[in-house]
Structure to design on (754 residues):
């Protein structure tokens, strides 16, 4: 069929089952946007117009994380494209499948520093799995099919497709191709042929599986460490839960692994690392076998790689060979999809129990939580948990409130905790929460944020209001850049350089200016009442919570020191 | 990287012959903080495939890491380290040497003969020599020619192949794992 390339793009999105696109139009992407009206694609694909391209990038990312589907984001050339970069990097660091589609200036203008021209494929090279510059109208469908396949499969991640404007206006032949047929055609088929083995089923090595089973038999103090790989791998969570029930050993989690093991599970020791629980960090220090699944031992987990799990044989299960021995030197590894590896392990693993080891691990208690007449961070999260029966999706920005969410909210399913773990992007939360809410109609979605983070992208409130996306924004307002202040407090001898945020806006009035209901809460009963009203409203809502300026995230371990060297007040 | 264990290592990389691939490969090195000592690139018997030969100063874990990262790139088809004892490495070096008298020209030609270098250009004031060899041969010749005055020197970068009938696409378990690094389908 002969059609305009811009229309082919829309057809390719439909082939992929895309129903929601986040974006912002501009000069070079006009032909693509025109298709929403010209051929009525707005009836098949919902376009969410954000306030800023960065918001669109985070929304597409949040949508992908919360649904497991590929997120899609549109932007124009030049500044439109560069505004995406923080969002692309955020998706890349947390292995979130997003296809970014940008249009560039026409081919005859490329390389001439034309108006709104930028080399976005060059810029995004280190933060995408793969990227493309499309100059031939006949290749677009093929490239888009490849782009989606690459974003979605294996270790997921962002892919960028940049299309020259003249290409979007040109005509080309388009033959519809069902999704299942994509690997048998065009570039995808060629790529699969080139590979020296069957890439479709990355089968873990049976010998490697047996080695781990043997190591488990030898172990007396095993610890499971679960990371984001188990969340991203479709169908891995039930296998993971069966695995830990059979192994019956303590389970620690990275921030990205939140939801793999239910937060209130008897074997769960909590988060590990810089702000990890005493139980997790002490267990990592004393275990004799560490089974790490789908994590990458980042510097926030293995704060000092040389002393991480010093008494243990470390086994690393990951889909990405390049992660093995990258940060921490391991004793054994299994390459494969978490679901498949766990399935093979479950088939052979006999039931175990380690009563003494568990007793020792769980004997490490946390510092008791404060309860008085001011509002404490843990009370906010406990209230959200209680009111929503632990079902709410939590999206966060970055900093203290993010750590409190990871510590105090009990996540129970994948896609429930949407947070920028790897890249640590302030301003991620609101966009991501909108994406998560659009992908999960009927679920309560709460954006937990700090006053510093919220100010970075709060203009997206207009998007939430316009499309009536019922995101409840809970601002942990301590009138300071809390996490940085915490470091200044503990490490920089209380020299609070440039972290005081003693300034506007009045967040309640700001919400009202955007046409959104806003409230303030200074203690737990006030917060609970406000939060219940927010849930009942079914509308976007802002609740500003007054938090103590010197509230800290505990426990804490300094960067570069062993995970058991807790900083005390 | 452990500087003490760092040695000069040769990587042979087969890539898709397309725009941007060389920059994708080379910037991986700079991103990870590895300095490229030598780089040579050209098409293979298949015009759709290019071979990049890269030399870096690296220790064993570091070369392992960079190979893993390279294999993750979609335009990269295969990567192998060519161990010195199992491979042959050659580089073409061209020297333009000052040679203004008959005697000097003769002397340089003799040196060229000893090194089996060829004279590829001659003028009344200079001689240009082409030498094929590894770095020790090139260095030795360079030292000798410095006495006459080297006007210009250019090297192609090392190219290398494994000895015998092996090719770098031989299938091994490791390589299967590496291909999984592409994380695809």
């Amino acid at each position: 069929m002969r059609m305009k390339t811009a229309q082919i793009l829309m057809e390719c999105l439909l082939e992929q089952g895309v129903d929601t696109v986040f974006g912002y139009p501009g000069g070079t992407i006009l032909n693509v946007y025109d298709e929403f009206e010209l051929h009525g694609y707005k009836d098949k694909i919902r376009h969410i117009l954000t306030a800023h391209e960065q918001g669109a990038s985070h929304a597409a990312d949040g949508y992908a994380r919360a649904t497991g589907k590929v997120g899609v984001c549109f932007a124009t050339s030049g500044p439109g494209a560069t505004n995406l970069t923080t969002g692309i990097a955020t998706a890349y660091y947390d292995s979130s499948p997003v296809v970014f589609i940008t249009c560039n200036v026409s081919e005859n203008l490329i390389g001439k520093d034309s108006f709104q021209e930028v080399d976005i494929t060059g810029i995004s090279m280190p933060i995408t799995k793969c990227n493309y510059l499309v100059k031939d109208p006949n290749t677009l469908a093929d490239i888009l099919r490849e782009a989606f396949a690459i974003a979605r499969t294996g270790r997921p991640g962002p892919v960028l497709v940049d299309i020259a404007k003249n290409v979007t206006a040109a005509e080309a032949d388009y033959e519809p191709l069902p999704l299942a047929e994509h690997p048998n055609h065009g570039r995808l088929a060629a790529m699969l042929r080139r590979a020296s083995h069957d890439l479709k089923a990355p089968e873990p090595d049976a010998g490697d599986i047996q080695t781990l089973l043997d190591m488990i038999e030898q172990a007396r103090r095993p610890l499971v460490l679960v990371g984001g790989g188990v969340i991203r791998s479709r169908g891995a969570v039930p296998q993971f839960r069966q695995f830990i029930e059979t192994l019956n050993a303590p389970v620690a989690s990275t921030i990205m692994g939140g939801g793999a093991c239910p937060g209130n599970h008897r074997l769960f020791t909590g988060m590990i690392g810089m702000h990890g629980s005493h139980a997790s960090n002490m267990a990592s220090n004393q275990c004799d076998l560490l089974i790490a699944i789908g994590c990458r031992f980042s510097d926030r987990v293995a704060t000092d790689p040389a002393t991480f799990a010093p008494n243990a044989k470390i086994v690393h299960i990951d889909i990405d060979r390049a992660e093995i021995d990258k940060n921490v030197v391991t004793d054994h590894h299994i390459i494969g999809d978490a679901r498949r590896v766990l399935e093979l392990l479950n088939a052979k693993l006999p039931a175990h129990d380690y009563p003494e080891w568990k007793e020792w691990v769980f004997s490490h208690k946390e510092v008791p939580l404060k309860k008085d007449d001011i509002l404490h961070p843990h009370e906010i999260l406990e209230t959200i948990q209680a009111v929503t029966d632990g079902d709410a999706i939590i999206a966060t920005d970055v900093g203290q409130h993010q750590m409190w969410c990871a510590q105090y909210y009990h996540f129970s399913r994948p896609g429930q905790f949407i947070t920028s773990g790897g890249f640590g992007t302030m301003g991620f939360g609101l966009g991501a929460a909108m994406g998560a809410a659009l992908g999960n109609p009927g679920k309560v979605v709460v954006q937990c944020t700090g006053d510093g983070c919220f100010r970075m992208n709060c203009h997206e409130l207009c998007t939430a209001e316009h499309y009536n996306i019922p995101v409840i924004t809970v601002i942990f307002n301590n009138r300071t850049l809390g996490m940085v202040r915490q470091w200044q407090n503990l490490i920089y001898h209380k020299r609070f350089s440039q972290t005081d945020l003693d300034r506007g806006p009045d967040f309640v009035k700001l919400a009202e200016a955007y046409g959104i209901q806003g409230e303030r809460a200074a203690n737990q009963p006030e917060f609970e009442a406000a939060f219940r009203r927010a849930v009942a409203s079914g509308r976007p809502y802002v609740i500003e919570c007054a938090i103590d300026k010197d509230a800290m995230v505990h426990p804490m371990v300094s960067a570069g020191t062993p995970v058991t060297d807790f900083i005390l007040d | 990287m452990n500087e003490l264990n760092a040695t000069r290592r040769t990587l042979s990389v087969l890539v898709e012959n397309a725009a941007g691939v060389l920059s994708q490969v080379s910037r991986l090195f700079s991103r990870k903080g590895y300095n490229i000592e030598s780089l040579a690139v050209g098409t293979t018997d298949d015009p759709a495939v290019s071979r990049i030969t890269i030399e870096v100063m690296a220790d064993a874990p570091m070369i392992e890491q960079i190979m893993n990262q390279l294999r993750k790139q979609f335009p990269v088809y295969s990567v192998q380290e060519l161990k010195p004892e199992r491979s042959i490495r050659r580089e073409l070096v061209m020297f333009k040497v000052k040679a203004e008298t008959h005697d000097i020209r003769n002397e340089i030609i003799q040196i060229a003969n000893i090194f089996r270098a060829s004279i590829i250009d001659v003028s009344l004031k200079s001689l240009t020599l082409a030498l094929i060899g590894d770095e020790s041969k090139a260095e030795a010749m360079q030292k000798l020619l410095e006495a006459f005055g080297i006007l210009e020197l250019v090297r192609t970068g090392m190219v290398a192949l494994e000895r015998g009938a092996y090719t770098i696409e031989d299938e091994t378990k490791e390589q299967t794992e590496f291909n999984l690094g592409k994380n695809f389908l």
Notes: Chain B has a mean pLDDT of 87. The radius of gyration of chain B is 20 Å. Residues 3-87+163-180 of chain B form a domain with the Alpha-Beta Plaits fold (CATH 3.30.70.260). Chain B touches chain A at residues 20, 23-24, 27, 31, 61, 64-65, 68-69, 71-72, 74, 77, 169, 171, 173, 175-185 (CB under 8 Å).
